[in-house]
Amino acid sequence: MTRTPHTARNGDVILAVDELGGTGGEPLLLVMGLGVSRYWWPDGLVDALVDAGFHVAAFDGRDAGASTHFDDVPAGNPLAGLLRRRPTAYTAEDMTDDTVAVLDALGWQRAHLFGISQGGLVAQRTALRHPQRVHTMTSFAAVPSDARGAARLRYVRLPFLARLARHRFPAGREGDVAAGLALARAVASPGYAFDEEDVRSRVERELDAGLPSGVRDTRAQARQTAASWHGPRLRDLRVPTLVLHGEQDPLIRPAAGRRIAETVPNARYVELPGIGHDLPRAVWPTVVQEIRALANTVARL
Predict the structure, then answer these.
(1) Pairwise CA distance, residues 220 & 217, whole Å
(2) pTM for this one?
(3) Which class for 16: exposed (0-12), middle (13-18), buried (19 or more C-beta within 10 A)?
């Protein structure tokens, strides 16, 4: 896979962007989850999306990867961020505007969006705030965009978060790799073998690019989860929508995915058996097939 780098700007915020292949295909922008960088997308999944006819790109959201960080803004931990009523550094609307700035940098008037976890939340909100820029929206393992503050906790498995918070790793590269592997293993799909080699390659790729470990930057994660939303309600989403959720997601209850699909008119919900809070290799064909089918509905309109 060849990466073609770009830089997007939203005011003072600089966003790192990579084109990942498929020039001439339908634009598809990948939106990664909480804190981690664009390097966490599996190459094989990207290649499968390219083969399905998509021109694929990914970017680092603010406070992640090589994009602008807000390290001078005080923050606690991600759970505390969920409970905040006011944003500490920026709003959820700012994060959706970042997504549009990426589309502008790529020269894409409109694109399909595919977001994972926190990225799925950003994708929902981008489709609500900027529907004219979004062809379709696919959300995986995300909470509903309307859930705010303590209301989000009904979808989050708090004992799992508590166990993650007790993890401790030494400073330095070896500790960073261990932390990445531990998180990936914790959220992995119970119904499938854990591919340590693939995960290690993604963790090391992030570190080899000179980026901080997003897994360990809990203050950045807290700023992202604290970004409050005051935009349109989820029921007002009119972009063709696909909601994917793992049947055995250890972090976000499947009820979250069902709620999104029940609220968005004509949304399709697919619950993936044996899947956790990740996308193992065996499920890629299903995911790509579903995203391709959703895109085809737009082509027929």
Answers:
(1) 6
(2) 0.94
(3) buried
β-pair type (241-246, 268-272) = parallel
Q: Give Cα 13 to chain centroid, integer Å.
A: 19
Mean pLDDT, the chain, integer: 93
Mean pLDDT of 51-55: 98
Fold of 4-300: Rossmann fold (3.40.50)
Q: How far apart are CA 280 and CA 261, in angstroms?
A: 23
**Closest by Cα among 93, 152, 72, 164 to 117:** 152
Q: Specify the pLDDT at position 79.
A: 58
Domain boundaries, the chain: 4-300
List residues bridging with 245 in a β-sheet: 271
Within 59-212, where are the H helices?
Answer: 78-83, 92-106, 118-129, 158-165, 173-187, 196-208
Taking alpha carbons only, the member of 2, 56, 60 closest to residue 27 is: 56
Asked if 35 contacts 220 with a C-beta cutoff of 8 angstroms, the reply is yes
How far, in Å, CA of 113 to CA of 16, rounded?
A: 17
DSSP state, 60?
A: P
State which H helix or E strand residue 58 sits in: strand 54-59
Would you state the structure tokens that stand for residue 235, as one six-digit string? Answer: 């029921």
DSSP 171-189: SSHHHHHHHHHHHHHHHS-
Q: How far apart are CA 26 and CA 28, in angstroms?
A: 6
